[in-house]
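Input record (one chain):
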Amino acid sequence: MGTDIYLYAEIKKHGTWQPLSLAEQGEHRPEYCPESDPEDYVDSQLSAPVEIYNARNDDLFAILGDVRNPTGRTLNDQPFDVIAPPRGLPEDLSIEIRSMLNDWECETGSGVSGPSWLLLSEVLEFDWYGKVMCYQAMVDARVAHLFEESKPFPYDPWPKEIPIGYATYMRDGVIVRWTDTYADAAGQDFMDFLNTLKQQGEPSQIRLVFWFDH
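The corresponding structure, as predicted from the sequence alone:
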């Protein structure tokens, strides 16, 4: 059974954290009125929290939340460096996410696993391209020669007639090693997601709130 992430973004406006939904950037969102009741504003103006990233990537989860770290694929079971130790949920979590969590816990009868949060500024300042990880796995013997040097996974020269893949164990497979940056480990979709997110406002005023299911 794999691990799933529940990841949401919040943005701080008028001193209050509010859900940030990238899917609704084109929609008009009324500004907060200090004279109004904050709870009335939340109920009438803000949409329910929306997951903004839900791909399954154990390497990324180890970097973000120290989950199942090491992941079992790295050479000599080397753990990933973590952006920050798990912090639990923030005390000033937005009302919308807090309400959603309360409903979820009532339905499941259990609390969230590995909850934490990170400012977008912390995530962007992390050395994604300077840090590297060495991997070891088994591949089809016909492509083992592509791994003769310690270098990134050879996607480009991989023969088209052979499916790209590797495994902890593969019958008639050959053990190979390669090196990838943390950005490669996180995946291009996550790095693109960060680039999109930083366009939404000041990175120190945006944060990722997440937990896991495994």
